[in-house]
Design brief:
This protein is mainly β. Helices cover 13% and strands 49% of the residues. The chain has helices spanning 2-19, 118-121; strands spanning 29-30, 36-40, 43-51, 58-74, 86-100, 107-113, 130-146, 151-155, 158-161. The strands form 2 sheets. Strands 4, 5, 7, 8 and 9 form a 5-stranded antiparallel β-sheet that branches. The longest helix has 18 residues, at 2-19.
């Protein structure tokens, strides 16, 4: 009789273990060596892996950074005629997209931050001059996930300088 009770208890424990929901996965976090920020031209590309999520969970992944963007006015002679025709603007940039965790509770993806346009920054040039993008620096780069609350600071600065700007 005790062998039969032991077998039933063992079967119940095994079933609970095998069929338990992965929703109890716990500890959502970004994998540091699989989460990187790199420049592709003037864009900052963040590749990431978040683990410890329930299978099928939808997370809103956000990348934020402080952007320091410089534009200048260039005349027909290819010169920047006045210091006042050059502006550097600090803005907070971010991009957010939804991602779904795979059956193992992982999300692998990529998000791209772009520098703001001169128009978006309210910068324009006088007649006869052309707006030219000079550089962008991304600093204080962070990736975060909601609703899990996972986050990771990627640092910086990451600086791109336009080789064609005078």
């Amino acid at each position: 009789m005790s062998k039969r009770i032991f077998a039933v208890i063992a079967a119940v424990v095994t079933a609970l273990f095998l069929f338990s929901s992965p929703a109890t996965a716990g500890n959502p976090h970004f994998i540091k060596n699989a989460t990187t920020a790199t420049l592709q031209g003037s864009d900052l590309v963040v590749n990431f892996k978040e683990a410890g999520l329930p299978s099928g969970a939808v997370e809103f992944i956000t990348v934020t950074a402080l952007l320091s963007t410089t534009y200048e006015c260039v005349n027909n002679g290819g010169k920047n005629p006045k210091a006042s025709n050059k502006t550097t603007t600090q803005t907070q940039g971010s991009v957010t997209e939804p991602f779904t965790a795979d059956k193992n509770g992982n999300i692998v993806g990529s998000l791209t931050l772009e520098p703001p346009t001169a128009d978006a920054l309210g910068f324009s040039c006088p007649s006869g001059q052309t707006v030219t993008f000079v550089s962008v620096t991304y600093s204080n780069v962070t990736i975060s996930s909601s609703p899990s609350g996972a986050s990771l600071r990627l640092g910086g600065p990451f600086t791109y300088t336009n080789p064609l700007a005078p």
